[in-house]
Design a protein that fits this description.
- By secondary structure, the protein is α/β, with parallel strands linked by helices.
- The protein has one domain: P-loop containing nucleotide triphosphate hydrolases (Rossmann fold), CATH 3.40.50.
- It has helices spanning about 45-50, 90-100, 105-120, 135-150, 165-180, 195, 215-225, 230-235; strands at about 5-15, 15-30, 30-35, 60-65, 65, 75-80, 155-160, 185-190, 200-205, 210-215.
- Strands 6-7-8-3-9-10 form a six-stranded mixed sheet, sandwiched between helices. Strands 2-1-4-5 form a four-stranded antiparallel sheet, with helices on one face.
- The longest helix is centred in the C-terminal third of the chain and has 16 residues, at about 165-180.
- It is globular, with a radius of gyration of 18 Å.
Length: about 240
């Protein structure tokens, strides 16, 4: 399968307010695709439509060959929301076990995947603590571990590194590169331009519209500018 995500003429309105307008987007297998834009630009709404948590007002979305929303596609998607959906009264490990069981992982596989995910986000020594005692950054890291727990084909990560220290952020991006090499597809939203530089391709979003899209190098060459910040401003992304 060449295209993992196909977004065709998607618009979304809440009442009279249009938050997405005629979005076209294609994410290919084995690439890291970035949605770049300020808070309120429509990135999270678009991500929720892609994973089937919300319906477009018009337009269509296909993920892994299935029209969304789709129960068939769900187990193949690892989703990390912008707000952490965790059980504070449970420990970190109990949260991971719960979500692993939802995806039907057997006991042996659960143990292996929990060890991998906890190590990746540097939470191994904190798994026995209740999540209610976690800091904001620790909760973000646990949410990322949960998104990875069932070894999904597609990772959809909404602002995954917010509140995470620079050293761990680098190690998470290194793992995303490794997952891409292993054939996984990753859609990531961010408003940090140095993270945009790490994407294979990206779409710059403002006020529910795609201003421009392409690889970081293509965009800089197209606009004759040396930085993605300047590309965003020149493309109409003034804040």
């Amino acid at each position: 399968m060449d295209s993992v995500i196909k977004v065709k003429q998607v618009s979304k309105s809440f009442g009279k307010k249009e938050v997405l307008s005629n979005i076209d987007l294609t994410v290919k297998q084995g690439e890291i695709y970035g949605l770049i834009g300020p808070s309120g630009s429509g990135k999270t709404t678009l991500v929720k439509i892609i994973v089937g948590m919300d319906n477009p007002s018009k337009g269509d979305v296909e993920v892994l060959g299935d029209k969304i929303p789709s129960l068939q596609a769900l187990p193949k998607i690892g989703y990390m929301a912008q707000s952490d959906a965790l059980y504070p009264e449970l420990t970190g490990e109990e949260n991971l076990v719960f979500f692993a069981s939802l995806f039907g992982l057997k006991k042996g596989e659960q143990k292996q995947r929990i060890a991998y995910a906890a190590d990746l986000v540097n939470l191994t020594s904190d798994l026995s603590k209740k999540v209610g005692a976690y800091s904001g950054g620790m909760k973000r890291r646990l949410s990322l571990a949960i998104a990875l727990i069932h070894d999904p084909q597609l990772l959809v990560l909404d602002e995954p590194t917010v509140g995470i220290d620079p050293e761990l952020r680098l190690s998470i991006w290194n793992e995303l590169f490794r997952l891409r090499t292993a054939g996984k597809t990753i859609l990531v939203t961010t408003h940090v331009m140095d993270e945009a530089e790490k994407c294979d391709r990206l779409a710059m979003v403002r006020e529910g519209k795609v201003l421009t899209s392409g690889s970081p190098l293509e965009l800089k060459q197209q606009y004759g500018i040396g930085s993605l910040e300047e590309v965003f401003l020149k493309a109409g992304g003034k804040q």
